[in-house]
Amino acid sequence: MGLPDQARRRVLVDVVPPMALWVLDLVVSSGNEQQRGILPAIGIAYAFLGYVPLVVRRRYPRAVFLVVVGHALLAPAVTATYFPTFSWWLGLYTVAATSRLAEAVGALAVASLPAAAVVATNVRDASPDHRASAFVAAAVPNVVLLAALFGVARWARWSGQRHEASRRSAEEAIAAERTRIARDLHDVVAHSVTLMLLQAGGAARFVRQDPDRAAAALAHVDTLGQQALVELRRMLVLLRPDDAPPGAGVASSPSGLTNLPSLVDRVAAGGTDARLVVEGEPRALEPGVDLTVYRIAQEALTNATRYADPAAPVEVRLRWLEDDVELEVLNRRAPGRRAAAGRPEGGGYGLVGMRERVLSVDGHLLAGPQPDGTFRVLARLPAARERAAATHG
Length: 393
Description:
Blueprint: H1 5-30, H2 41-51, H3 61-78, H4 87-98, H5 101-125, H6 131-206, H7 211-238, H8 260-269, E1 274-279, H9 287-307, E2 314-320, E3 324-332, H10 350-360, E4 364-369, E5 374-382, H11 385-392
Parallel strand pairs: 1-2
Antiparallel strand pairs: 2-3, 3-5, 4-5
Helix pairs in contact: 1-2, 2-3, 3-4, 3-5, 4-5, 4-6, 5-6, 6-7, 6-10, 8-9, 9-10
C-alpha cells in the first residue's frame, strides 16, 4: 500500500534532500587530501547527526540552522577526518528563503563562521610560503558560493510571494465576480417571482369568470416558476464559496441584449469606432443567459476602450445559431499599450469575470490575441431554454 500524496510529498521535500546531501558530504570528505579513504564510523555517525535536524527545517528554519552551524563548528573537536560542507548551506538557504530580510542577513553572517573555519583550516595546513594563496583560494569560492546561495534563496522567496499574491488576487476577483453575478441573478429571480404573484393573482380573479384566461395566467406562472428554479440553481452554485468578500462586486441594474445597441452607441459616442453586426434571427433567451451575453459585451468593450487602437474599429458580432448564441468582440491593440504584467486584459481580472459568467450558464469562452494582431473575445452560450433547463434539472 503506497503512501498518500501528501506524505509522499513530505518525504520527497523534507527527507530526501538532507539524506542525499549527507551521502554526498561523506563522499567529498572521503576524497579530500587528508582522508583519502573511507571515513571512520565516528565521522559517518557525526555527519548523520548533522543532517537529521534538516528534516524539520521548513517547520523550524532558524532553530535548525543554528543547530547545523553549531554541529559544523564542533566537528574539529569530535573528529579530525570530517567537516560538514552542505548541511549549513541547506540551513542558510532555508532561512533566507522563508524569513524576513533582517533575519536572512543575520543568518548569512552566522554562516560566515563555518566558512571562516574552512578558510582557517586551509591556511593552517598550507606551507608558510603558500598561505596567502591558500587564503585566496579558500576565501573567494566560499564568499561567492554563500552570496549566490543567499541570492537564489531571496529570489525564490520573492517569486513565491509574487505567485501567492497573484493567486490571492485571482481568487478574490473570482469571488467578487461570482457575488456580482449572483446579485444579477437575484434580480432576475425577484422579477420572475413578482410576475408570478401578479399572474397568480389575476388567475384567482378570473378563475370563475374567464377560465381560459385564468388557465393562460397559470401556464405563465408555471413557465416563470421553472425559469426561476433554473436561475436559483445557478445562483446557489455561484454562492458555494463561504469567503466571498462582503459587498464585493455590487452590480448595476440588470441589462440585456435589448440594450446592446445602446451600449455600442455609448462606446462609439466616447470616441471609439464601435460597430454592431447581428447575424441570424433574434429570439428570447433565458434571463440569465441574456444578461450574461450583455455583461460579456460590456466587459469586452470596456477593455477595448482602454487598449484598442483608436484608428481601428471595434467589431461586435452577435450570431444567432440553431441552439446557441455567439458573441464575438474584435479590436486591434494600440502600439505600445500593454496590460499590467501578470494580469489579465484590462488590469482588473476582466477575463476571469467573463469566464465565471460563461461557466455559470454552461457556455464556452475563448479570449486572447490573434496572429493578425487583433484581440478576440468569443463566447458561445446556450440559446435554447429547454436545453439549459435540462442541464440544471
